[in-house]
Each structure stands twice: as structure tokens, then as C-alpha cells.
Specification:
There is one protein chain. With 211 residues, the protein is an alpha+beta fold. The chain is built from 9 helices and 5 strands; from the N terminus they run αααααααβββαββα. Strands 2-1-3-5-4 form a 5-stranded antiparallel beta sheet, with helices on one face. Helix 3 packs across helix 9. The chain is elongated, with a radius of gyration of 18 Å.
Length: 211
């Protein structure tokens, strides 16, 4: 399975803002973006003096930012866009709803992981059930009424024992509900545009793929 194995902090520096790709570390003094909030390379510090960005450049940056926030590679992202464009409603909103509905994103939003990258790894290692059945595919799209839970065999894992102590400090979006005792969550509704926490300009993504 293809995945991005490069330095996550470089992605934040390239976008010029924190994408919170490394969870709690991004909120600590260890965050690389706090020390060097500019793109990498010898010309990085002079990035603010570069010429004005073109329309294509802004569209590309919006698309790349969304890909990096959700940890999706180009081919899969393009496929999501094609599916979103075939659905009713606004293509951009449909695209973001699909990205939010990925199992790794749902695990992260339920507070069972500190970042989407960590959630993706936990899902791949088979620590979660969907409606009582093991699912180890991070791109699995949850549906209305689905129940996502930590597998019984994984609950004695040291990571999940520590997680239980922190759950009360982790909020969930309105379209999800979490049962802290059962270590599970339910999909109450499909995510709407207002439920997307990341600052993504989906209209620029639509313009990029509509060229």
C-alpha cells in the first residue's frame, strides 16, 4: 500500500501553517514549524518576498493541503474527486464529506488517536471493528449508523489503556457520538461542510480539477 514516508513537519512548512500531522507534538515547543515557519531549502526564509502566486498556484496549494491533511496520495484523491462530482450537491462539499468519512479520519475524530497518521497505523494493525467486524483498511468509508469500536483483543494494549484516561479531554464532532466505557463511537449523520475542522478551500480544488 502506497503511503507518504517523508518528514511530516516539512509538509506544514511548505503550506505555511500547522496541519497538525503529528498530533500532540504539534502543540508542543518541539514543533518544527514553531522554529522554522517557512518552506525548506536555501531560499525558504525568503519565501515571503517571492512574486505573487498565480491562480493555478493557489489551486494547486489548496489541493495539496487537503491531500496532506487527510494523508491521501494523488491517484486516490483524484478518484475521490471523480466520485464526488457524480453525486448530488456541491462537488467540493461532497469531496470533504468523503474524506471525513474515511475510517482513519473517524478514528481520529472520535479521539482514539492523536493524529490521522496514527489512526491510519492503528487501523492497518487491525485494532478496530466496524459493526462488530474487523476492518483494517484506512480508506473504508463509514455509513450512517455504523459503530466503530476498539477490538476486545486490543483493549489490554498499553496504548489503549493510557488512551482511556485522556478520552474525557478529547471532544467529538456533532455527527459522531462516543461511548467512553464501551470504547466505541457511532455515526449519527454524514459529515456536513461545517463539520470539517481543517481550513480547506474546496472551491479552489474544484477549479484545479476543472481546468
Amino acid at each position: 500500500m502506497a503511503r507518504n514516508i517523508g518528514a511530516a513537519c516539512k509538509l506544514c512548512r511548505r503550506e505555511g501553517e500547522k496541519l497538525f500531522l503529528k498530533g500532540d507534538r504539534c502543540s508542543s515547543p518541539k514543533c518544527a514549524f514553531e522554529r522554522r515557519p517557512y518552506p525548506g531549502g536555501q531560499h525558504g526564509p525568503q519565501a515571503q518576498f517571492r512574486r505573487k502566486e498565480s491562480d493555478y498556484g493557489r489551486q494547486l496549494r489548496a489541493k495539496q493541503k487537503a491531500r496532506r491533511v487527510y494523508g491521501v496520495l494523488e491517484r486516490q484523491f483524484r478518484r475521490y474527486f471523480a466520485e464526488a462530482s457524480q453525486q448530488r450537491g456541491m462537488t467540493g462539499a461532497n469531496l470533504l464529506a468523503m474524506l471525513e468519512s474515511r475510517l482513519d479520519s473517524v478514528v481520529y475524530r472520535l479521539g482514539f488517536a492523536s493524529s490521522r497518521a496514527q489512526a491510519r497505523q492503528l487501523v492497518r494493525h487491525g485494532h478496530f471493528d466496524v459493526n462488530g467486524h474487523k476492518v483494517d483498511v484506512p480508506s473504508y468509508l463509514v455509513r450512517l449508523g455504523d459503530v466503530v469500536s476498539i477490538r476486545a483483543s486490543s483493549r489490554q494494549n498499553a496504548f489503549f489503556r493510557t488512551l482511556v484516561e485522556d478520552l474525557e479531554h478529547r471532544a467529538t464532532p456533532e455527527w459522531l457520538t462516543r461511548d467512553d466505557e464501551a470504547l466505541s463511537g457511532r455515526v449519527l449523520a454524514l459529515p456536513a461542510r461545517a463539520d470539517v475542522s481543517a481550513d480547506i478551500q474546496e472551491q479552489l480544488i474544484v477549479e484545479y480539477y476543472s481546468r
